Amino acid sequence: MRRTWIFSALMLLAAGCGAGSPFSADSLGNLFGGSTGALIKAGGHEANALALSEKDEDAMGQATGAVLTNRYGVYQNQRVETYVTLVGLTVASASPNPGGNYVFGVLNTEDVNAFSGPNGYIFVTRGALEKMQDEAELAGVLAHEIGHVCHHDGLAQVKTAEQSAALSDALAASSTAAQFSQLTDVGIQAITEKGYSQPQEFAADEEGVKIMTAAGYDPHSYLAFLERLSKLQGMAGGGSIMSTHPAMDERVVRVQQEIVELDNPVGAKLADRFARSMVFAQATP
Amino acid sequence: MNHGFMNQRRKASWLVLLATGALLAAGAAADEVWIKSEVVQIRTGKGAVYPVIVTVEKGTELTVVDREGHWIKVQAGSQQGYVYDGSVSPDKVSGGGNLLASLGAGSDASSLSSGAAAKGLAPEADQYAASKNIDPGPMNRLIDFRKHFDPKLWEAFTAEGKVGPDAPNAQ
Questions:
Q1: What is the pLDDT of residues A215-266, one digit of tens each?
Q2: Using CA atoms, how far apart are residues A200 and A223, in angstroms rounded to an integer?
Q3: Residues B65 and B112 in one domain
């Protein structure tokens, strides 16, 4: 899942996934409508602060979604869209931020992948749905993405980029609108080309298992999906679910361990309901 | 039997009860919480599926009406709505948020969340899309789809599958 947005973290600020976020909007300043021009030290350079208010973060999540939906297209099948949204809202309701903003979409590509943009703009590909066997697998994938959002993983990447001398110099010389554009570009690039770090992926798996279990789903299904993906690894580039950092085998082992630590919870799998809802033939172009 | 003494005791008991009631009422009235997250949506129900009454900012003081598990029912202008307890503090939080100002800025009772989301892409996102020659239509449609999502559909879905935060298998 390299596509976990830089801005997931930013959006998470707005979504407020849990209190005591390590990042605050204040630390980034206010790109739009806020105090601009505050100087920070970035990579040894002084530059205008990356100033991102909560509305900016939400806008970045939307921009991220706009890029993804244009790149892959939206799978316009109302039954599938509705079902994915229902499952997404169900796991979100058991997340650290059950009252946040969440928008779910299905990307029309054979690639097996999932993405999360800032503030809860979450996408799963049609290819990933086609590889799933029950509702709990879908719940696990969406919970993993919500985990990235709750951990502000995207913001961490933005902050890393912020420390780049080249970016900070470019931002210093830019208008606020241009800054927004540059930061969004950075986020998208990181998601599609770099991806999350190994610790971030492990942590999102761990959080995702907790979330789906709290929602009453069987985490063994997510484990089964990861095991299936481990055989497919290499089919798709980028995206957090298909992340090659770390190797899928290692993620499988860690998820197995977590399930054992949770005393092997048994929850709903709902394979029949999943099969009834995944009627791909009804898709409209 | 000294009826005068008994009457006095009855009166005293009533006074104690009244005083206790007044104290309890004062205590209830003083039950306030402050928004500690950067931005929080006050929703009509206990979950992200429910429409937003108003979006409030850090430091906003809210009057507690009731507590239901991890959700706090608060007064939001003329309406009552819910916030998650993880987003508020029992202690005063600085931040400049103000409920009346938020309500005055535009109640978005029928929206997904912020006013921007309610209207589709925010201006900044729309401008970004235009600068990249990206069609905002698909994302606008997804936001609109989510905005009009029926909470009753979700309630029936979770009940049928026995999933959700209140499900029997929920850990």
A1: 999 999 999 999 998 887 655 454 556 655 567 889 999 999 999 999 999 9
A2: 18
A3: yes
Domain range for residue A134?
6-282
Confirm whether A1 is domain-assigned. no
Show residues of chain B in contact with A273, CB under 8 Å. Answer: 160-161
Rounded to whole angstroms, the Cα distance separating A103 from A283 reads 20
Q: Which of B39, B131, B158 to mutate to test the interface with A (most CBs of A within 10 A)?
A: B39
Q: Both B37 and B25 in a single domain? A: no
Token look-up 């608060």 returns B74
**Do A5 and A154 contact (CB within 8 A), yes or no?**
yes
Helix (H, G, I), strand (E, B) or coil at B20: helix
pLDDT tens-place string over residues B109-121: 434 444 334 468 9
Inter-chain CB proximity B161 and A273 less than 8 Å = yes
* Closest chain A CA to residue B45: A99
Into how many domains does chain B fold? 2
**Domain range enclosing B1:** 1-30
Q: Is B161 on the interface with A (CB under 8 A)?
A: yes
Write out chain A residues lying below 8 Å of B41, CB-based: 99-101
Is residue A201 within 8 A of residue A243, CB to CB? The reply is: yes
Asked whether residue B60 falls in the same domain as residue B16, the answer is no
Q: Residues A220, A224, A227, A232: is their CA dihedral positive or negative?
A: negative
Cβ within 8 Å of A, B 101-160 = 112-114, 116-117, 121-125, 127-129, 131-132, 134-136, 138-139, 141-143, 145-146, 149, 153-154, 157-158, 160
Looking at the domain assignment, is residue B167 inside a domain?
no
The SS3 call for residue B17 is helix
ipTM over cut 0.85: no
| Chain B interface, best mutation among A86, A189, A221, by max B CB count within 10 A | A86
Record the pTM. 0.80
